[in-house]
Amino acid sequence: MQKLLTAKQMRDADSFTIASKSIFSADLMEEASHAFVKIFTEEFPDRSLRVSVYCGTGNNGGDGLAISRLLMQAGYHDIKVMIARFSANSTDDFEINFRRLREFQNIRIQELRSAVECGAETSDLIIDALLGSGLNKPLSGEWEKLVTWLNSLHKTIVSVDIPTGLPAEEGAGSGHAILHARLAISFQRPKLSFLLPGSAPYLDRFRVADIGLDDDFIQNCEGPYYLLEENDIRERLIHRAAFSHKGTFGHAMLVAGAPETMGAALLTSRACLYAGAGLTSACIPATGLTALNASLPEVMAVVRSEQGLPTSVDWEKYQAIGIGPGLGTGPGSLSLLRVVLKNFHKPIVLDADALNLIAHNYELIQQVPEHSVLTPHMKEFDRLFGDHQDWWSRIETGIDRATTLGCTIVLKNRYTIIFTPQGMCLFNPTGTPAMATGGSGDALTGIITSFLAQGYEPHEAAFIGTYVHGAAGERVRGYVATPSQLIDELPLLMKELAD
Ligand SMILES: NC(=O)C1=CN([C@@H]2O[C@H](COP(=O)(O)OP(=O)(O)OC[C@H]3O[C@@H](n4cnc5c(N)ncnc54)[C@H](O)[C@@H]3O)[C@@H](O)[C@H]2O)[C@@H](O)CC1
Ligand SMILES: Nc1ncnc2c1ncn2[C@@H]1O[C@H](COP(=O)(O)OP(=O)(O)O)[C@@H](O)[C@H]1O
Ligand SMILES: [K+]
After folding, report:
1. How high is the pLDDT of residue 176?
2. Mean pLDDT over the full length of the chain
3. What is the pLDDT of residue 270?
């Protein structure tokens, strides 16, 4: 897994690399600019493109000047450089690159003392090298005017490192001017803010350019933030041994569904089965029995009535329980949840209505077995832990609650965030907006419960489950990835990852 850094830590990584490789910081800037140009030429191969590069006078602007020179060398012949000289300050590396650029005869350089000097903008594409990770306050004055004007042009904007005005960590505050980039080519790691929904109005897509910073230094930086990678799953997903049998892979029970929401029980049970549990049982109301038997013959039923569970439930035989999808929040569901929490003491997966019930009866949180996995979406998270103004504060709460409760919390989103009892905060890269359809979360609950039953540590069940859930959704390749389609992809995907 990749360590994710704050802007300050990234600066430390820059300095460490410069010192340990005995290079000049301008060399690192050159390296970064080459890495940017490599990705840029893949994305926009047409050399006749008219490109305007807007540069500040810090190191982000220095990158912009070096990128302009390298683009000329790569054959882009219509390049205009606009330098926003809104303050008297400039960095040494900006000045070095300014001198280098001026040696090119046929490059147009214009200096702006104020945003009104911009004039007509006839380019096809704008490169934004105004401000980068050095941003230390919201844009105001000439910066705000320039960014507002650039946004009003509705041109394709490619940002160097980060869209100008977007904070690297907290996510965007509303009401401030921030450049809207089609693409950001970010150095070494994505910025934390890219992984939060607050960046969505300002950034359509990002790519990461390796600029050769010291990887050991980065991985050993203090801090809880990580990005999951495919290799993390490959390393963890076990290969099915020759003499393994259904007993090897555990027995999972899904407590889910109600007469009107049996689909949730079917989806979560099917996901559990397809993610490899040795045996899967569904605890459902009697009205759902025909549907279960007809659609999932592999899954066994534990039929519950209005009065609750049959007295004969042998709790010991289950390795894991997942509870919540489509359960409802009525008194019957509450007493069912109480019975499960009273009788089952291994880690469980709590989702949807199980979380809503706990939110309204918060004393129940004390009875949740240690190391359990909670899978709230944003609203369920806020119901459980209180309202939050932004995602950054949700992250702080998630880290705190996961450690104090001794549970793993899976906060679902485009980049689902997994908080572990050890204090880690992992972002999952897989998934697609095609999964934004009812029932996707039910599938995730089934998958994580399945991995718990198979004997994975609960936080690892959450990593693997979240990753394969998103990757399966991507494989559907459709405009919509229905939960059923996503579940169908699981066995082949997991075989590829495990072998
Ligand atoms: N060795 C390095 O430090 C490297 C830095 N790189 C580039 O350097 C960038 C960071 O450069 P800098 O630290 O020089 O900072 P920036 O170029 O992002 O900003 C320049 C300066 O603008 C001022 N500023 C910040 N917020 C402002 C605001 N809202 N209004 C007006 N002025 C504001 C600050 O004094 C800041 O230092 C990265 O984003 C990246 O593009 C890359 O060249 C890789 C190597
Ligand atoms: N835009 C998106 N990008 C990636 N994943 C998404 C997106 N929208 C939804 N998902 C995934 O789909 C699931 C939705 O879960 P949830 O909101 O609980 O749905 P439901 O309750 O309908 O089952 C989560 O795992 C989430 O990460
Ligand atoms: K920028």
Report:
1. 87
2. 95
3. 98
- Low-confidence spans in the chain with pLDDT less than 50: none
Q: Based on the domain organization, do 202 and 235 belong to the same domain? A: no
**From the CB of 472, is ligand 2 less than 6 Å away?**
no
Distance CA 273, CA 257 (A): 17
Q: Which of 175, 208, 223 is the last residue of a domain?
A: 223
Do residues 280 and 199 share a domain? Answer: no
173 and 262 inside one domain: no
Residues 200-257 have pLDDT tens digits of: 999 999 999 999 999 999 999 999 999 999 999 999 999 999 999 998 999 999 999 9
Give the length of the chain.
499
What dihedral angle (degrees, nearest 10) is formed by the CA atoms of 251, 252, 255, 258? -90
Nearest listed ligand to the Cα of residue 163: 3
Can you say how many angstroms the Cα of residue 390 is from the centroid of all Cα atoms in its chain? 16
For 183-201, b/e burial (b = at least 16 CB within 10 A) is bbbbbbbbbbbbbbebbee
The model's pTM is 0.95
Binding-site sequence positions for (6S)-NADPHX: 59-63, 132-138, 161, 264, 326, 377, 442
* Residue 421, pLDDT score: 98
CATH number at residue 167: 3.40.50.10260
Residue 353 to residue 337: CA distance in whole angstroms: 10
Last residue of a domain, one of 160, 190, 223: 223
CA of 421 relative to ligand 2 center, distance in Å: 23
Tell the residue number behind the tokens 């979406």, with chain if given: 377
| Three-class DSSP category at 183 | strand
Residues 264 and 166 occupy one common structural domain: no
Range of the domain at 167: 2-223
Same domain, 305 and 429: yes
Residues 182 and 300 in one domain: no
